[in-house]
Design brief:
The chain has 212 residues and is of the alpha/beta class. It has 2 domains: 32 residues, no CATH class; 177 residues, Carbonic anhydrase (Beta-carbonic Anhydrase, Chain A, 3-Layer(aba) Sandwich), CATH 3.40.1050. It contains 10 helices and 6 strands. Strands 2-1-3-4-5-6 form a 6-stranded mixed sheet, with helices on one face. Strand 1, helix 4 and strand 2 form a beta-alpha-beta unit. Helix 8 runs antiparallel to helix 9. It is globular. The N and C termini lie far apart (38 Å). It binds zinc ion.
Length: 212
């Protein structure tokens, strides 16, 4: 089936099925406005759809997606800060109580760190610059475990990307303030859709621990 036809057909299935069943929920979300309790930063990867893998309901999640689930540091310069705008909206306007950064296995953005120079296309491509946010993790694994399988090195970088995003979230003044007074909690998660395993960062052990 043509990919666009598949999507319009999918909309009709939604309209005649789930929407009909949950019409009251959708109407309430429009009439009363959204008030998600959780914002989630995820990768744009087509295989890891947060709504599906976490079985969320409409109105549950304010989702921010980009390449490699990265949050940049809070910077006031420049003009078009898509991810920072969404973080600010979630925290200052929606007043979410939690932000989850959801990393994932087999992330193409993370794998691009291991490409040879020039392999990712144009010299002025956006990807290398964006992935520079987590380049220190790449340099660290290449420096400390150069002979390890790529999958192992990539896994460490995927988890480091989650940690970098959590650290950068704390550079947003309103995030820092709300974390300090307990109104906001930050969470680092990593999911592998091949083994269907979810790991959650435990600040006490400073490791990602499997969720039963
Ligand atoms: Zn990814």
């Amino acid at each position: 089936m043509d990919p666009i036809d598949k999507l319009t057909a999918g909309f009709k299935v939604f309209r005649d099925g789930r929407f009909k069943e949950q019409r009251a929920t959708y109407e309430a979300l429009v009439d009363q406005g959204q008030s998600p309790k959780v914002a989630l930063v995820a990768c744009s990867d087509s295989r890891v759809d947060p709504g599906i893998v976490l079985q969320a309901d409409p109105g549950d999640l304010f989702i921010i997606r980009n390449v490699a689930n990265l949050v940049p540091p809070c910077e006031r310069g420049g003009r078009f800060h898509g991810t920072s705008t969404a973080v600010e909206f979630a925290v200052d306007h929606l007043e979410v109580g939690h932000i989850i950064v959801l990393g994932h296995a087999h992330c193409g953005g993370i794998r691009s760190l291991f490409d040879s120079p020039g392999e990712s296309g144009r010299d002025d491509s956006f990807v290398p610059s964006w992935m520079g946010l987590v380049r220190s993790a790449y340099l660290r694994v290449e420096g400390t475990m150069p002979e390890a399988p790529l999958e192992d090195k990539a896994r460490i970088c995927e988890q480091s990307a989650v940690m970098v995003s959590l650290e950068n979230l704390m550079t947003f003044p309103s995030v820092r303030e709300r974390v300090a007074d307990g109104r906001l909690r930050l969470h680092g998660w990593h999911i592998d859709i091949r083994s269907c395993a979810l790991q959650v960062y435990d600040p006490a052990s400073q490791h990602f621990e499997a969720v039963g």
